[in-house]
Write a structure and sequence with these properties.
Layout: H1 2-27, H2 31-40, H3 63-92
């Protein structure tokens, strides 16, 4: 029951993620906001690692749809890793 609820919440978050990742930053592109951030934030070096979904997008799909799909792919990868580690630990304890 708890796992089902967690899956439903995660899928809902993946569906609304374009709001926070794409639409909200565009709304915050005012000059005052950018200048206020520039005064407080120090530049950092960004390392560009190769990723399967570059810039959280999928070629040929609209931005928000690709963003939501990339969220679901990331969620699936995390859940798959969790289950793999859980099964390995469960077998070592003699539970299966």
């Amino acid at each position: 029951m708890m796992l089902r609820r967690a899956v439903i919440v995660s899928i809902a978050l993946a569906i609304v993620s374009p709001i926070f990742g794409l639409l909200l930053p565009e709304a915050l592109q005012s000059e005052e906001y950018i200048e206020a951030l520039a005064d407080r934030v120090e530049p950092v070096m960004v390392i560009d690692y190769p990723t399967p979904l570059k810039e959280y997008s999928i070629h040929g799909l609209p931005g928000p749809v690709g963003y939501a799909i990339s969220a679901l792919v990331g969620y699936g990868a995390i859940v798959g890793l969790y289950y793999t580690i859980h099964r390995i630990a469960f077998r070592r304890r003699g539970g299966g």
